[in-house]
């Protein structure tokens, strides 16, 4: 099996109509990339539109020194439409509020996640689980139906002051698709693995999701 992990980022940079910048959450990229590399996995970055994806300014003070080539990695990510899911043993969906606007309705992303799930591992952290909403199993059922998952909770959205800004509740949308959403205390590490699906609730869950993905794969 391939030892490559496709790591997917949002291309959306505006927080609704607030005029504030958003994007992907830096910790949710850097911590997993480091863990994947230490395990000997190859990491490829892609984003919805390709090019340089936007970083949420609120996460910009996270220490990125452990991934010395981060700027080069982000300089020109692949567009999802150019990705062959057959090249990957796993797909990892990075969170950040930007995903709320471009992950859920992206048919290419849904197809990639669905394809990788057939034989490999699908993992998401925080708002990255928006990339699971359109994905399906081989029989066309929602990928998350009947699965135990963790994702950024309604309580956390309220505490972050984003509950009146986001276009929908991720927790409620997952529940509506038949997922069993297990909610940990706000902003504490909460990770759930259900077969080949691994999810984490918030940035603090990044390391745990990455570790679970590494453990789930046959290492090179």
Automatic annotation (TrEMBL):
UniProt KW keywords: Glutamine amidotransferase, Lyase, Stress response
Pfam families referenced in this protein's UniProt entry, alphabetically: DJ-1_PfpI
UniProt entry tagged with the keyword S-adenosyl-L-methionine: no
Classification via InterPro entries: Class_I_gatase-like, DJ-1/PfpI, Prot/Nucl_acid_deglycase
Keyword Plastid: no
SUPFAM superfamilies: Class I glutamine amidotransferase-like (SSF52317)
Domain DJ-1/PfpI residue range list: 26-214
Source taxon at top rank: Bacteria
Family: Belongs to the peptidase C56 family. HSP31-like subfamily.
Protein name per Swiss-Prot or TrEMBL: Type 1 glutamine amidotransferase domain-containing protein
Native species: Actinoplanes sandaracinus
